[in-house]
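Ligand-bound model needed. zinc ion.
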Amino acid sequence: MRDIEHPIWCEPTRCSVGSDRVQLKGMHRSVVLTTQYDRHSGNEARVHLWSYDGIYVYMQLEFPGSLHDGLELTLEQGEEFGTALLDLSKLGGRRR
Ligand SMILES: [Zn+2]
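Prediction:
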C-alpha cells in the first residue's frame, strides 16, 4: 500500500484522507483562518483550503450564522477576489 502524501498546508487534525471517517478517500484540509466582519454581531468569515487529491486545491469561504451558504473558489479565483477587496479598500480610503 502506498503512503499517503499530504500537501504541506494539510492540518493533520482536520485531514480525513486514509481514515474511515469518510467513505470515499477523504479530504485534506488546512487550518481555518477567521476574520470578524461585523463588530456589533461578532460574525466572522472563515476560510480554509481543501482538496481530495492534493493537486486540485480549493478555498472554502464561509459566513457562519448568516443566510449565505458560502463560496467555493479555486486558488486563482481566491487570489482575484482578495485582490479586488484590497483594491476597493485602497480606493475607498482615497480622498479627492
Ligand atoms: Zn491530509
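Strands lie at 28-29, 33-36, 44-51, 58-62, 71-74.
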